[in-house]
């Protein structure tokens, strides 16, 4: 992609959340903006990114001029790419030791809140509402992954 293309995509994503039309967005919206650009940083990576774009004196807002160069570099370097579908599938299969093709809600909550970088309560509820089939109270992870994976084209 040409630099102008990156800038256009970033500006469009930023403007959605620039409610005052003054080239600033609430710092809490940055994660959503970055994800809308097809990047999937972890909470830790997001935290580091925010440190780069925040003002010396934290104001709770991020300025477009600060965000643009940092985000351009992220897109050019293809950082925080979504995890490929086959890798996600293998990860779920490891958790599904009985090879049922699904995990129960209880199993999912346990893995997501106790292992690795734990999900917050809010993230967990968001995932469960998207992933869990209310009838079986479990997640058919093959279907979930297909739904989750971002179409690259």
TrEMBL record:
InterPro entries: EF-hand-dom_pair, EF_hand_dom. CDD domains: EFh. The keyword ATP-binding does not apply. GO terms for cellular component: sperm principal piece. Residues 5-40, 83-118 form the EF-hand domain. Signal peptide: none annotated. Keywords: Repeat. It comes from the Eukaryota. The keyword Transferase does not apply. One of its GO terms (molecular function) is calcium ion binding. PANTHER family: DYNEIN REGULATORY COMPLEX PROTEIN 8. This is EF-hand calcium-binding domain-containing protein 2. The lineage of its organism: Eukaryota, Metazoa, Chordata, Craniata, Vertebrata.
